[in-house]
Protein backbone atom coordinates (compact mmCIF):
# COMPACT_ATOMS: atom_id res chain seq x y z
CA UNK A 1 0.00 0.00 0.00
CA UNK A 2 1.37 3.39 -0.97
CA UNK A 3 -0.34 6.58 0.09
CA UNK A 4 0.34 10.07 -1.19
CA UNK A 5 -0.53 12.97 1.11
CA UNK A 6 0.62 16.61 1.18
CA UNK A 7 3.06 15.59 3.94
CA UNK A 8 4.62 12.45 2.44
CA UNK A 9 4.56 9.48 0.12
CA UNK A 10 4.49 6.40 2.35
CA UNK A 11 4.83 2.78 1.36
CA UNK A 12 3.57 0.23 3.91
CA UNK A 13 4.60 -3.35 3.33
CA UNK A 14 3.80 -6.51 5.32
CA UNK A 15 5.27 -9.98 4.83
CA UNK A 16 5.81 -13.14 6.82
CA UNK A 17 8.91 -13.30 9.00
CA UNK A 18 10.13 -16.19 6.84
CA UNK A 19 9.83 -14.05 3.69
CA UNK A 20 11.52 -11.10 5.42
CA UNK A 21 14.43 -13.36 6.38
CA UNK A 22 14.87 -14.08 2.66
CA UNK A 23 15.67 -10.40 2.07
CA UNK A 24 18.73 -10.62 4.31
CA UNK A 25 22.22 -11.63 3.27
CA UNK A 26 23.22 -15.10 4.50
CA UNK A 27 19.56 -15.86 5.29
CA UNK A 28 20.18 -19.61 5.36
CA UNK A 29 22.66 -19.24 8.23
CA UNK A 30 20.36 -17.07 10.37
CA UNK A 31 18.10 -18.34 13.16
CA UNK A 32 14.36 -18.18 12.53
CA UNK A 33 12.99 -14.69 13.19
CA UNK A 34 10.37 -14.28 15.89
CA UNK A 35 9.14 -11.87 18.56
CA UNK A 36 11.83 -13.01 21.01
CA UNK A 37 14.76 -12.18 18.68
CA UNK A 38 13.30 -9.56 16.32
CA UNK A 39 15.53 -6.80 17.70
CA UNK A 40 18.61 -8.64 16.39
CA UNK A 41 17.15 -8.36 12.88
CA UNK A 42 15.62 -4.85 13.00
CA UNK A 43 18.62 -2.78 11.81
CA UNK A 44 19.28 -5.10 8.85
CA UNK A 45 15.58 -5.10 7.91
CA UNK A 46 15.41 -1.30 8.05
CA UNK A 47 18.50 -1.08 5.82
CA UNK A 48 16.93 -3.50 3.31
CA UNK A 49 13.60 -1.65 3.40
CA UNK A 50 15.34 1.62 2.51
CA UNK A 51 16.38 -0.07 -0.76
CA UNK A 52 13.20 -2.10 -1.30
CA UNK A 53 11.77 0.34 -3.85
CA UNK A 54 13.27 2.57 -6.48
CA UNK A 55 10.88 5.51 -6.57
CA UNK A 56 11.05 8.20 -9.24
CA UNK A 57 8.95 11.28 -9.86
CA UNK A 58 9.28 12.78 -13.35
CA UNK A 59 12.55 10.88 -13.77
CA UNK A 60 14.10 12.06 -10.49
CA UNK A 61 14.97 9.42 -7.90
CA UNK A 62 13.34 9.94 -4.49
CA UNK A 63 15.42 8.98 -1.46
CA UNK A 64 13.59 7.62 1.62
CA UNK A 65 13.60 10.14 4.45
CA UNK A 66 12.72 7.46 7.02
CA UNK A 67 12.29 3.70 7.19
CA UNK A 68 10.92 1.54 10.00
CA UNK A 69 10.45 -2.18 10.59
CA UNK A 70 8.39 -3.90 13.26
CA UNK A 71 6.75 -7.21 14.08
CA UNK A 72 3.00 -7.65 14.36
CA UNK A 73 1.23 -9.66 17.05
CA UNK A 74 0.77 -12.36 14.40
CA UNK A 75 4.55 -12.57 13.78
CA UNK A 76 4.55 -10.80 10.42
CA UNK A 77 7.06 -8.06 9.60
CA UNK A 78 5.76 -4.59 8.74
CA UNK A 79 7.81 -1.94 7.00
CA UNK A 80 7.07 1.75 6.48
CA UNK A 81 9.13 3.70 3.96
CA UNK A 82 8.54 7.46 3.86
CA UNK A 83 9.52 9.79 1.02
CA UNK A 84 9.05 13.52 0.50
CA UNK A 85 5.63 14.37 -0.97
CA UNK A 86 5.14 14.83 -4.71
CA UNK A 87 2.28 16.17 -6.80
CA UNK A 88 1.39 16.06 -10.45
CA UNK A 89 3.69 14.46 -12.96
CA UNK A 90 4.64 10.82 -13.33
CA UNK A 91 5.33 8.54 -10.34
CA UNK A 92 7.13 5.23 -10.77
CA UNK A 93 7.52 2.68 -7.97
CA UNK A 94 9.79 -0.26 -8.72
CA UNK A 95 9.62 -3.09 -6.17
CA UNK A 96 13.27 -4.13 -6.47
CA UNK A 97 12.99 -6.23 -3.27
CA UNK A 98 11.12 -8.86 -5.30
CA UNK A 99 14.41 -9.69 -7.04
CA UNK A 100 15.81 -10.83 -3.65
CA UNK A 101 13.01 -13.36 -3.12
CA UNK A 102 12.52 -16.79 -4.70
CA UNK A 103 10.44 -17.08 -7.86
CA UNK A 104 6.71 -17.15 -7.25
CA UNK A 105 6.47 -14.28 -4.76
CA UNK A 106 3.98 -11.61 -5.77
CA UNK A 107 2.99 -8.22 -4.42
CA UNK A 108 -0.16 -6.19 -4.92
CA UNK A 109 0.78 -2.53 -4.86
CA UNK A 110 -2.04 -0.04 -4.42
CA UNK A 111 -1.44 3.73 -4.66
CA UNK A 112 -4.02 6.02 -3.05
CA UNK A 113 -4.26 9.66 -2.08
CA UNK A 114 -5.18 10.87 1.42
CA UNK A 115 -8.90 10.63 0.60
CA UNK A 116 -8.43 6.95 -0.38
CA UNK A 117 -8.91 7.74 -4.08
CA UNK A 118 -7.16 5.04 -6.07
CA UNK A 119 -4.36 6.48 -8.22
CA UNK A 120 -3.18 3.10 -9.51
CA UNK A 121 -2.51 -0.52 -8.63
CA UNK A 122 -0.86 -3.59 -10.08
CA UNK A 123 0.17 -7.12 -9.22
CA UNK A 124 3.95 -7.26 -9.22
CA UNK A 125 6.35 -10.18 -9.47
CA UNK A 126 9.96 -10.85 -10.34
CA UNK A 127 8.87 -10.68 -14.00
CA UNK A 128 7.31 -7.24 -13.61
CA UNK A 129 8.25 -5.04 -10.66
CA UNK A 130 6.84 -1.62 -11.63
CA UNK A 131 3.75 0.43 -10.83
CA UNK A 132 3.45 3.72 -12.69
CA UNK A 133 0.87 6.46 -12.23
CA UNK A 134 0.23 9.92 -13.61
CA UNK A 135 -0.57 12.06 -10.58
CA UNK A 136 -3.24 14.74 -10.42
CA UNK A 137 -2.17 18.33 -9.83
CA UNK A 138 0.65 20.48 -11.09
CA UNK A 139 4.11 18.92 -11.13
CA UNK A 140 6.35 20.34 -8.44
CA UNK A 141 10.05 21.03 -8.56
CA UNK A 142 12.16 18.13 -7.24
CA UNK A 143 13.11 18.36 -3.59
CA UNK A 144 16.62 18.20 -2.21
CA UNK A 145 16.10 14.45 -1.67
CA UNK A 146 15.83 13.77 -5.41
CA UNK A 147 18.52 12.82 -7.91
CA UNK A 148 18.61 12.25 -11.66
CA UNK A 149 17.65 8.81 -12.86
CA UNK A 150 18.58 7.00 -16.06
CA UNK A 151 15.74 6.42 -18.54
CA UNK A 152 13.36 3.66 -17.50
CA UNK A 153 12.24 0.78 -19.70
CA UNK A 154 8.78 1.21 -21.22
CA UNK A 155 5.89 0.35 -18.93
CA UNK A 156 3.38 -2.38 -19.63
CA UNK A 157 -0.28 -1.47 -19.85
CA UNK A 158 -1.55 -0.63 -16.37
CA UNK A 159 -4.91 -1.71 -14.97
CA UNK A 160 -7.39 1.12 -14.70
CA UNK A 161 -7.10 3.00 -11.41
CA UNK A 162 -10.82 2.29 -11.01
CA UNK A 163 -10.41 -1.45 -11.42
CA UNK A 164 -10.73 -3.53 -8.28
CA UNK A 165 -7.52 -5.12 -7.03
CA UNK A 166 -7.79 -8.85 -6.49
CA UNK A 167 -8.95 -9.90 -3.03
CA UNK A 168 -6.44 -11.56 -0.75
CA UNK A 169 -7.55 -14.29 1.62
CA UNK A 170 -6.56 -13.84 5.25
CA UNK A 171 -5.25 -10.32 4.77
CA UNK A 172 -4.88 -8.56 8.08
CA UNK A 173 -3.14 -5.21 8.18
CA UNK A 174 -3.34 -2.42 10.72
CA UNK A 175 -5.33 0.60 9.68
CA UNK A 176 -7.62 -1.59 7.55
CA UNK A 177 -5.19 -1.82 4.62
CA UNK A 178 -4.27 -4.94 2.69
CA UNK A 179 -0.73 -6.33 2.81
CA UNK A 180 1.63 -5.47 0.01
CA UNK A 181 3.22 -8.89 -0.19
CA UNK A 182 1.20 -12.04 -0.30
Summarize the structure in words.
The chain is mainly beta. The chain is built from two helices and eleven strands. The strands form two sheets. It has a six-stranded mixed β-sheet. It has a five-stranded antiparallel β-sheet with strand order 10-7-3-4-11, with no helix packed on it. β3 and β4 form a beta hairpin. The radius of gyration is 16 Å and the shape is globular. The two termini are 12 Å apart.
List the helices and strands and how they pair.
Layout: E1 2-4, E2 9-16, H1 17-22, H2 39-50, E3 54-57, E4 60-62, E5 66-71, E6 76-83, E7 90-94, E8 106-113, E9 118-125, E10 130-134, E11 146-148
Parallel strand pairs: 1-8
Antiparallel strand pairs: 1-2, 2-6, 3-4, 3-7, 4-11, 5-6, 7-10, 8-9
Amino acid sequence: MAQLTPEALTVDMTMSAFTAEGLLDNAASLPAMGPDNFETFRARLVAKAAKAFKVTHDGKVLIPRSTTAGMTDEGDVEFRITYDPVSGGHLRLEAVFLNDLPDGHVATLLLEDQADNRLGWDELSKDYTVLEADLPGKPQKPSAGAASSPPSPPARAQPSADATPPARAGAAFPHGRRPLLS
